[in-house]
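Continuing the batch. This is chain 6 of the set; chains 1 through 5 are on the previous pages. Same settings as before, nothing changed between runs. Recording input and output for traceability.
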Amino acid sequence: MSNPAQSAEITPQILLRAYSIGMFPMSEGADDPTIFWVDPDLRGIFPLDQMIVSKSLARTIRSDRYEVRIDEDFEAVIDACAQAAPDRPNTWINQRIRKLYRDLFDFGFVHTVEVFAGKERVGGLYGVKIGGAFFGESMFHRATDASKVGLMHLAARLRAGGFRLLDTQFVTPHLATMGAIEVPRDAYHLMLDDAIGHTGDFRIWPKDERVSGTKVLDILKA
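Output for chain 6:
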């Protein structure tokens, strides 16, 4: 289900309110100035206690071949998320959406998870935090398993920080392999109300702390 918001002024505060009642914005493309609201019949979520980590992914995470950082460069992350890719020829991230999420990042409601191989940013994601809910918006990868490593680091951080909900909007075959499931809208809204009524600590670990892959896996198994 969607509602157009073609000309109305959407502020960061309106965007946060929309998330709190189960809606999120999209556009038809990068060059389309309009935004529409989406509240799907089936919502994608990751149950934080049921993340699926394959043996090969676990080896990659444990090896610490990638370094994972948070909130280092929002613009670099959203630029990468907006780029065309073989599995994503078009982007829904237009200039209005970029500005809104940039403002929310500055206000502390948007966070990034950034994956590095040496000095190169090879994967990452960004999303919105309200209370004990984290709404994943978009992710990218430029190296094997880089986005998966970022997602698992995020899930471990959310579990450690007392979050109740990791929203992924929709379930793709790729996300399903890591534990994403669909829930009906009414059930999702109950989960959402519970989650935003709690306080999640995204900074459960200091920004400059490098969290080991072993620690991430131990938290996800707990």
